[in-house]
User: What shape does this take?
Amino acid sequence: MEHSGIGVVSGGSGSSKFVIALNRYSQSKLTFVSNIADNFWHHGVYVCPDVDITTYALSGRLDETKGWGVKGDTHNLLNSFNSLGERDWFTLGDSDFALCLKRTEMMKSGLSLSQVTEYFCKLFKIKQKVIPATDDDVQTHVRTPQGRMHLQEFWVKRHGTPRVLGVEYVGVEKAKPNKLTFNAISKNTIILPANPITSILPTLRLRGVRKVLKHAKVVGVSPFIGDKVISGPAPKLMRAMNVKTNSFGVATMYSDFLKAFLVDKNEEPLLVRKIRDLGIEVVKTNIVVKSEADRKSVANELIRAL
Ligand code: FO1
Assistant: This one.
């Protein structure tokens, strides 16, 4: 089926295989609305993991094994830095660091994150559009007994070990969605598999976004295989927010706008029924993307479900 355009709400590593699949096998114009709430400052440069993971994935630069960073990147700067004292907790490769430095300089000269992202898309000859969900500052912070900390500190520096008391999206009430977001998501929209708490909710919480999605055709993909996610702290954070740590739990978070949900082909029938009881169509299919054939089939299933 042919669509005029599809808005794709995406996160980071968890979404990257689907970004590649859709880019290769969808005939439609795609606009990736990228999460920005895991952006942070490190060594004086502005790091935007999910925006970068998306542009790297679309330009063939992504280190697909890790799901972040640049394929074949060197680490000379990091190694030299580490040799001077304390080991850095965040691994920025040389090319990755250079991109963050360029972005920081452009933003300091007055350009917005959207403008800088557009510049990199052009530079990397990306045909699809990538837009940060907002140009304003929104940060996912995790509340723990050790205090409130940025998601990157919780997940990368402390390996997700602190007990989670809650999650806050600092700045989300005041943030304005990117001016292209509503247009991108108003007709046909795909919510890629990603940590719903840290990668999707920050975008959904932006003013007006859920309202627009209620009038759109929205298809999602579960990040869960049974009660496990491929990587990341989703289960721990979902438990802290009293959400079931499975596909049903994710469906409850999207139930006010989701038309169809792609879940693992072996998903339990009882759980599938519970999702259908929310008024959501369920498509049981292979959502573990490893081969080219998997990419093609998942992209086709997504387009078909719209
Ligand atoms: N994730 C890690 O677990 N360890 C890292 O050292 C790390 C470095 C890194 C550098 C650039 C980048 O764009 C992403 C990076 N990530 C790293 C991934 C990132 O922290 C998370 O996967 C996302 O923020 C979650 O959406």
